[in-house]
Design goal:
Layout: E1 2-6, H1 9-28, H2 33-50, H3 55-71, H4 81-99, H5 113-122, H6 134-140, H7 144-156, H8 159-174, E2 177-183, E3 187-191, E4 200-204, E5 209-215, E6 219-227, E7 233-235, E8 240-247
Antiparallel strand pairs: 1-4, 2-8, 3-6, 4-8, 5-6, 6-7
Helix pairs in contact: 1-2, 1-8, 2-7, 3-4, 3-8, 4-8
């Protein structure tokens, strides 16, 4: 079982958005109205998370930083030029698409009065009933292909953000240095190497173990738990080994 823990706030936001884009991708391809309802709810969640003022500029800076780091490797004889150029090209494409996106991700959708009327009601328990939003009730009874076409059109305004996140997180995960570590009675602590700014922690555990993780740029602490039959977590008392990866 793989667990990821962000060590920087920007990565925390990226992981949340990645999960939301994955969810909406799974829901949109289905046919039922209830799946498309939750796809729409997820779209509004993406808009809320992406509304952070510095998200776009931070992503553009990170994409450019990674590009410059990779370009500097072109003189390294151990680096395959074709593979390097392919990654640099993906970074350039993601940068250009995101840079040409006007305003914040999802801003173009705020001018759609019908969508915003649904957004204002969807967070209210039962707020999208047919007597509250008859036009939304009618939309839910349209053919699945029509609803899917609408969803694809709305989500397409977010795709530059989704593509930038995909490139960034793949590069981050590929930078990981993996090691097997051992916990003492389920407890593990490690000081992070000085001089490096790690952004993401990845753990691979046995499926019956659940980690409680805390960390920052100087130290990570992990306590291993096991789920009881009622799903409450109980600390383990035995030693255990697991794979830990730090991504910079």
């Amino acid at each position: 079982m793989l667990y990821e823990y962000p060590l920087q706030e920007g990565v925390r936001t990226m992981l949340r958005l990645e999960q939301l884009f994955d969810r909406i991708g799974q829901l949109m391809v289905r046919d039922t109205a209830i799946d498309h309802h939750f796809a729409l709810a997820t779209l509004f969640e993406i808009m809320d998370v992406a509304a952070r003022a510095d998200l776009k500029s931070d992503l553009l800076k990170e994409l450019d930083r990674h590009k410059q780091q990779l370009i500097a490797l072109r003189s390294n004889p151990q680096v395959e030029p074709a593979a390097l150029d392919s990654v640099v090209h993906r970074l350039e494409q993601a940068f250009d698409a995101l840079n040409h996106l006007p305003g914040k991700a999802g801003h173009a959708l705020t001018s759609n009065e019908w969508l915003m009327s649904v957004r204002s009601r969807i967070s209210i328990p039962g707020g999208t009933c047919e007597f509250d939003l008859p036009s939304y009730h009618a939309w839910q009874h349209r053919d699945a292909s029509v609803r899917r076409a609408d969803l694809n059109q709305w989500v397409s305004t977010m795709m530059p953000l989704a593509q930038a996140l995909q490139v960034m997180l793949q590069l981050l995960r590929d930078s990981s240095v993996r090691q097997m570590v051992h916990s003492n009675a389920g407890q593990f602590q490690q000081a992070l190497p000085a001089g490096r700014s790690f952004q993401l922690l990845r753990l691979r555990l046995e499926p019956n173990l659940v980690p409680e993780i805390s960390g920052h740029r100087l130290m990570v602490s992990i306590r291993l738990m096991r789920a009881e039959p009622d799903n409450r977590l109980k600390p383990i008392t035995e030693d255990a080994s697991f794979e830990l990866a730090l991504c910079a």
